[in-house]
Amino acid sequence: MRNKLLSAIKPILKSLFLAGLVLSLALGNADGALAARSGGRIGGGSFRAPSRTYSPPSRTYAPPSGGYYPGGGGYYPGGGIGFPFLFPFFGIGGGFGGLFTILLFLGLANFLVQTFRNIGTSNEEVDSLGYSNSKVSVAKVQVGLLSQARSLQGELNELANSADTGTAEGRAQVLQESTLALLRHPEYWVYGATEAQQTALVAAEAKFNQLALGERSKFSAETLSNVNNQLRQAPATASLPAAGGELAEQLKQLSGEYIVVTIVVGAEGNLQLPKIDNTDDLRQALRQIGGISSERLLAVEILWTPQAEGDTLTTDDMLAEYPDLKLV
């Protein structure tokens, strides 16, 4: 009878034990978990306007219709200020003084009109090529994946260690490789979100920094970073004590573990990203942001957490730190 009773309550006791263990780890190590949330970072760039020299189109001066007087004395009527226009002032030319005065006035007026027109055209061309008022898009794509996508962490770690983030071409390649890594793991996508806005170049850097710093502040430490070809790596502490076998797997299933990857870009022109409602929207957003060319890409940051092996990102962490993520 006693053995039967023990056999009956043993599963209940096991479940209570696991639940108590999870609660004790979550509550007793909450500060430690937050202190050990590692993050990785790849990127770089600048929001300074591209240095492009402007050379106004050459204009060959063509005098108004007219011709030369024999002997090279100057232009006859319609040609500018030359020898014939001196006639009225020296009494030469008889009754033509009034006519020449009118022609002189018309020539001067035509010269002033052309001068102001050329100045206006030059200013318009400089504005169109100078980028002082050019529009820049600042955008963010964020993906939450199941922790089973551990190979994605390895790909991002390897990319951080080998990427050339000091050139526009290298940063464009980082963007493409990161989005490709995400596109290769759609079976692990759980959450997604996008954000994009168009602004003037002078305000774009502040918006970009706001988005990037908002994500970086969620890390307790950037344990791996490669920004503008400055590679930094630091050790990270695991947030949960090591556990093995069946108990470890049950704890993972009960607590939930995730990986979050965030892509922030600043690019010339208009970049419109779809609102995330399903995996198709997320796939389209990743393809759009990953397809930005090096000529348009001004700055990029790829951020992911956790970065260090053994770190965890729980369901509670997701709810607290990433409330904008939508289930896909």
Briefly, what is this?
The protein is of the alpha+beta class and 328 residues long.
| Share of helical residues | 40-55%
Number of strands: 8
Strand arrangement within the widest β-sheet reads: 5-4-1-7-6-2-3-8
What is the helix/strand order? HHEHEHHEHEEHEHEHE
Q: Structural class per helix/strand content?
A: alpha+beta
Average residue pLDDT: 75
Total number of helical segments?
9
Major beta sheet summary: 8 strands, mixed
Low-confidence stretches: 17-35, 51-55, 60-95, 121-132, 238-245, 247-255
Rg (CA only): 35 Å
Q: How many domains in all?
A: 2
Beta-strand content: 15-25%
Instruction: Tell the overall outline.
Output: elongated
Terminal Cα span: 51 Å
Describe the structure.
There is one protein chain. This protein has 2 domains: 28-50 and 133-327, no CATH class; 83-130. The protein contains 9 helices and 8 strands. It has helices at residues 2-28, 30-35, 97-130, 150-162, 168-183, 201-216, 245-255, 279-290, 315-321; strands spanning 38-45, 135-146, 189-200, 221-227, 230-233, 258-268, 297-305, 326-327. It has an 8-stranded mixed sheet with strand order 5-4-1-7-6-2-3-8, with helices on both faces. Helix 4 (150-162) packs antiparallel against helix 5 and helix 5 (168-183) runs antiparallel to helix 8. The longest helix is centred in the middle third of the chain and has 34 residues, at 97-130.
